[in-house]
Amino acid sequence: MLRILKDLFRYNREFSLGAILILLVVAISLASFLSPYPSGMQYVVPFDAPPSWDHPFGTNSRGQDVFWQLTFAIRNSLLFGTAVALLSRLIAIVVGLTSGYVGGMVDSVLMSINDTFVVFPPFPILVLVYFIFKDHMSWALLAVAMACLGWAYDARLIRSMALSLRTREFTTQSLFSGMSTGQILAEEHLPYVLPIVFATTMNNINWSIGLEVTLSVIGFTNIDTPTIGTMIYWANQHTALVAGVWWWIAFPVGLVIITFVGLYLLSVSMNEYIDPRSRLSGMGGAA
Amino acid sequence: MRILTALSLALGGLVLGQQAQAAEDFLAGIPRNQVLIAENPEGTVTDPSNFNLWVPKPNGTSTGLQQLCMDTLWYIDPDQGLNGKVWDNSLAADKPQYNKDFNEMTVKLRPGIMWSDGVEFTADDVVYTVQTLMADPGGFNDGARMAANVDTVSAPDKDTVVFKLKKPNSRFHAAFTVRWSATWIMPKHVFEKQEKPSKYNFNPPVCLGSYKLKSFDPNGAWFIWQRRDDWQKTTLARFGEPGPNYVAYIDPGPPDKRVILQQNHQLDIIHDTSPEGAFALIKSSPTSHGWFKGFPYAHPDPTLPMVVLNDQLEKFKNPDVRWALALLIDMKAVDMASYRGAATISAIDVPPTGTYPHYYFEPMEQWLKDFTIDTGKRTIHPYDPNMGKEIADMLRPSMGAAIPKDPQAIAAAFGRGWWKQDPQAAAELLEKAGLKEIGGKWMLPDGTPFTITISTEGDNRPVMTRAGSIIAQQWTQAGIDSKIDALPTAMWSNMFNGQNEATMAWTVETWGGHPDLSFFLDSWHSQFLSDPGKFQPPRNWQRWKDPELDKIIEQIRAIDFDDPKGIELGQDFVKLAVKNMPNIPLMSYNVFTIMDSTYWTGYPSAETDPYTDPVPNWGNTKYMMVKLKPAGAQ
Amino acid sequence: MAAYALYVLRRSGQFVLVVFVGINIAFFVTHATPIDPITAAIAAATRFSQADPQAVQLTREALRELYGLQGNLWQQYVVFWMRVARADFGPSLSAFPTPVSTLIWRALPWTFGLLSVATLISWGLGNLLGGLAGYYRRNVPLKLVGVVASGLQPIPNYVMAFIVLVLFGYVWPILPITGSSQINLPQGWTLAYFQSVFQHALLPVLSLVLVGTGAWFIGMRALVSNIVTEDYVAYAELGGVDRWRILISYVMRNALLTQVTGLALSLGLIFNGAVITEVVFGYPGLGNLLIRAVYAGDYSLVIGIASTSIIAVAFAALVIDLVLPLLDPRVRVA
User: Fold this and answer.
1) Which of C55, C103, C183 is nearest residue B47 as measured by Cβ atoms?
2) What's the half-sphere exposure (Cβ side, CA atoms, 13 Å) at B233?
3) Is residue B18, in this structure, part of any structural domain at all?
4) How confident is the model at residue A199 (pLDDT cuts 50, 70, 90)?
5) β-strands B222-227, B594-596: how paired?
6) Which residues does chain B have within 8 Å of residue A214's beta carbon, measured at their own beta carbons?
7) Cα B492 to Cα A128: distance, rounded to the nearest angstrom
8) Residue B141: which of C45, C65, C166 has the nearest Cβ?
9) B352 and B497 in one domain?
10) Which of C8, C14, C211, C269 to mutate to probe the A interface, most A CBs <10 Å?
11) Chain C window 40-59: which residues touch B at a Cβ cutoff of 8 Å?
12) Residue B454's beta-bridge partner residues?
């Protein structure tokens, strides 16, 4: 395992850059544990100070240090995005592969469920979920709700790949050689769909953080929990951009972009690694 | 290839757009210097083609419709009024005449007023309006109110209306007296042709005001009104010719965008924006200014934001607990957090605005200084008369000349005193009420932790969410775990339905210019109080009940609107509220109405001419039109 | 052919099922909310003006009757379906008595226009560049495009819309930042009107495209780099087939299949982004209408909008599914 990582690091510039970016982001989120201020407290530092040595990312109109707020926010957003992505990937892979390979009635039933979920506009549903739970709306509940809404699209994608895979020769060969359905799916088909799963994981983390931001911006989440979304919410409440407090918005947005570029680079390089032939050509290119 | 074509098209369009934007005005076909553009705070109107504003609907009334097109019998100015007269007889020729039992009201009407379609306005229109509303109490906003009060309404001649009331009501004229809004008069000749008046969309509206509808966005984002050619046949003509040929009410979008639009001189009047946005705008744009020339710039509306406590809940039943919560608040921090220092604070249950400093704040200052409470261990003077001045001093280093120095000006802008933060006294009061502090957390007498959820109206009133958030922090620091729950407007029902603990809202709204408190106070009578957890109609949402309160209200009901004894009774109410602290009053609702004098001058202002409230959704802003003049000779 | 007809029949049956289940869930979720539209209406009507407590109680009773909210959930449910069968969602509660369908029809063209234009541009652009990037994996400019596209993609639509708005409406104020056309310009088939609509759509479309392209780019790149390693591509390369032909006919065509499916299915997701973009730019579409309906507690309007989007997206998916087997003979319909 370590050797693989070392190989990747040495031969794949995208991987090393991505890893560095993600390490940076993770380090920032871990720094939240060192924060001199509790996350929710206001008026602990002067207002609206531009970035300086004392406050590297400046302070906001609520008397909070933007850097330390950001450490909490990125930690919560990352955890949130990852939780949603993992949960929804699990559902998507199982449903997609089974449906595509088994076909027939199973496919029809699964895809009926799937399509019902696909066509739900997630935004109104999430808003309504918030309305129902209101006070009891927690981080975990929102994550589960989003995971339930976020798998169907990718399951459809995976199924369409599995449909093609089923008609390939190697599937027929595996079947003749006596492999079970589960084995065929896990050993033969899964590797083919993994690149797309990785790509969609990135999309899904993006989607969930983006949706969290959207909900937060309109104030439909628990605005007391610092996330990238609620940071922007509070910045908007103080019209930070037109008031010239650009650092309150620029740093959260900048950090979330770094996170995604990092994840993207990792996913691309892992895709290449999963597929041995492109790995060889990649190494050749680097050498 | 097609994609590249599309791309180049888009880029071409960008350049095209640049030219077009530079060449054209913000409004098509109307020269910019002939139109006043104001924000309609309702945003985009859901069904713009419905101008029937007598029916209940969440938007579509402050589109210029109630400000420019409607008219009714009387107006009370929230500030000092045109020519210093707070009361204006608009469609009426005189003040309401009651008989001595207050069960009959006679109104003399102003002759020579015309509807915008050339039909003469007469007493028949008033009679028709009242009868139509009464006949459909569910279909119309004011139907039930008319049905509950009016026995018969008649027009002995075309300039006289006589209301016979079902029961004595010395404030019945309030229904036809504009303070933000009122019951508007319907054109009989238009509505009588409709089978069901409450279903009629009244498009195009036939107006009594000096303006009529020119055009509106089918999607509800803008409404344009045009000055009537026969404006001299309207009530406003007494004050001269309305300045703007056209007035547009638009949805400019969120607060930041309002600032951007005014910086581009595309929005003459911002209804409200964030304190920070307003400060930035005034700093960067020399033509933008507020109600006050300096700090706090905003217009203090005669509305009193407060922490509305649900007094029917067991934990808030004891006045000592409510007082303890008030003493745990650091008002300076609340002022900074909510309004960035630009609040006008009030320790008592009337807003510190309009003529109220004169009627209530100045006369009661000494009483407040002398007021004491018993904490169970000692007696303290909770009032800090210097709070307003201290806030001004605190802001002076950063805001400089924008902060007034004159004590009178400071009192007008920042308010006078408030309750001194006193955690020690608060703890004593809580102990007196039977609460116990265990491990830094307060426990209710039944042993459960004392926690508070403060509901705020998140999407709509950021300033209140900000205030709620800091108050929650202060209470939490004192050992009462508190959090805010920012709700969208539709969820506001929890306050009405008694599900709320504490709410950032207001249950006190006044005429502003006139000292009579019945506008809100009458509804605080225990006869209207609902059971715990049941729907509570406006406005006693703190669900406070006190026999002394009922007595005061009944006394007010028995005297005339202008009786000087009303002020005395009003002060009695204030004292009673201070003793009981049914809600925690904070400050006036300061609206950051920012006016751009690039195209128009003559806006009202606190220092030079406080003739009306510039906040553009007020029905009273019609008086602004006659004062506005084109800037320069462009 | 008979097999295909059967497939069409089955797939259409599924469409009906999807719509039925979807609208049902929308109905019950909406009715489970603690929002009381009557209280919301009263709160709005009595906000600033004087209100007589007695009169408010009377109004409340009257509204309950007027809004047709009497009866238990089951009775309301039956009434609801009887209406939906006639494509009628009843009167809007916040714009009473205007029918919900009137409001939706007024907003729908704007959302449809904004969504379709923005989606087609970002889909086309993303796939073209993503395909190229997957094929020419060592091309530096394409790698840069990848970094930019995937760097923009995670920016929440709200933030992107706001950045675009600040850049082109504030810092360099060249484009309108609010509304769908110039104020006081009459709607009609005039050049001035179209030019104005085009101008007003530029910034919303731009912000949607900037955010939307990345996902297609990443997906296409992953698909193509997968296909490139297939044997038939290697054979074609060894066989000296023109590289452009390989890219277009061998690689992109196969990958596009997945991306076409993705396009139809992502409309529901793109709708999300459009909602908030419409809000930022004050664009008069369904998104803005939805937000207002939610704020006003107008659940007949919320159900109407949710159902409309469910039907629209399900229909798009149906069309794609019916066309897909005709494009790719490997996908058997059985």
Assistant:
1) C103
2) 16
3) no
4) low
5) unpaired
6) none
7) 15
8) C45
9) yes
10) C269
11) 40-46, 48-59
12) B484, B502
Q: B329 CB near a chain A CB, below 8 Å?
A: no
Query: What count of other Cβ atoms lies within 10 Å of the Cβ of residue A260?
Result: 25
In this predicted structure, what is the pLDDT of residue B550?
Answer: 97
Give C-chain residues touching B29 at CB under 8 angstroms: 184-185
In this complex, which of A62, A135, A243 lies closest to B280 when CB atoms are compared? Answer: A243
Q: Where do the structural domains in chain C lie, given as residue ranges? A: 103-296
Count, residues in chain B: 634
Half-sphere exposure of A211 (CA within 13 A, CB side): 28
The mean pLDDT of B129-144, rounded to a whole number, is 89
Report whether C33 contacts A132 (CB < 8 A): yes
In the sheet with B306-309, reading across from the earlier edge strand, the strands are: B481-487, B451-457, B502-505, B306-309, B583-585
The span from the CA of B71 to the CA of B46, in Å, is: 24
Query: Contact C125/B217, CB-based, under 8 Å?
Result: no
Chain A residues in contact with B256 (beta carbon < 8 A):
236, 239, 241-242
Render pLDDT for B14-62 as a digit per residue (tens, 0 to 9).
444 444 443 346 788 899 999 999 999 988 898 899 999 998 777 899 9
Residue C21 and residue C51 in contact, taking contact as beta carbons nearer than 8 Å: no
DSSP B109: B
pLDDT tens for each residue of A213-235: 888 887 778 888 899 889 988 89
Q: Whole-angstrom Cα distance, residue B234 to residue C133? A: 71
**Domain assignment of residue A5, yes or no:** no
Q: Is residue C331 pLDDT above 80, yes or no?
A: no
CATH number where A191 lies:
1.10.3720.10
- The candidate with the shortest Cα–Cα distance to B484, out of A135, A42, A226, is A135
C248 interfaces chain B, CB cutoff of 8 Å: no
* Assembly ipTM: 0.84
Based on the structure, what is the number of domains in chain A?
1
Cis status, amide bond into A13, omega within 30 of 0:
no
Asked if A138 has any chain B CB less than 8 Å from its own CB, the reply is no
Per mean pLDDT, which range of B68-72, B428-432, B471-475, C231-235 is the poorest? C231-235
How confident is residue C69, by pLDDT bands cut at 50, 70 and 90?
A: low
Q: What is the pTM of this model?
A: 0.88
Q: What does residue B594 show for φ and ψ, rounded to 5 degrees?
A: -110, 125
**Least Cα separation, residue C32 to chain A (angstroms):** 7
Confidence band, pLDDT 50/70/90 cuts, at residue B312:
very high
Q: What percent of chain B has pLDDT over 90?
A: 81
Interatomic CA distance for residues B476 and A41, integer angstroms? 10
**Per-residue DSSP letter, B176:** G
CA A264 to chain C, closest CA, distance in angstroms equals 7
> Is A265 contained in some domain?
yes
B454 contacts on A by Cβ (under 8 Å) = none
Residue C317 to residue C314: CA distance in whole angstroms: 5
Tokens of B546: 């006190």
C-beta separation of B585 from B306 below 8 A: yes
Asked if A45 is an interface residue toward chain B (Cβ–Cβ < 8 A), one would say no
B112 and B139 share one domain: yes
Say how many CA atoms lie within 13 Å of C310 toward its Cβ.
26
Four-way CATH pick for C103-296: 1.10.3720.10, 3.40.50.720, 1.10.1240.10, 3.30.360.10: 1.10.3720.10
pLDDT at C179 (0 to 100): 85
H helices of chain C, where? 2-31, 37-45, 53-66, 73-84, 100-135, 140-152, 157-166, 191-227, 231-238, 243-245, 253-280, 286-296, 299-327
Nearest to B221 among C39, C51, C282 (CB): C282
Residue B487 and residue B365 in one domain: yes
Is residue B522 scored above 50 in pLDDT?
yes
Residue B15 lies in a domain: no
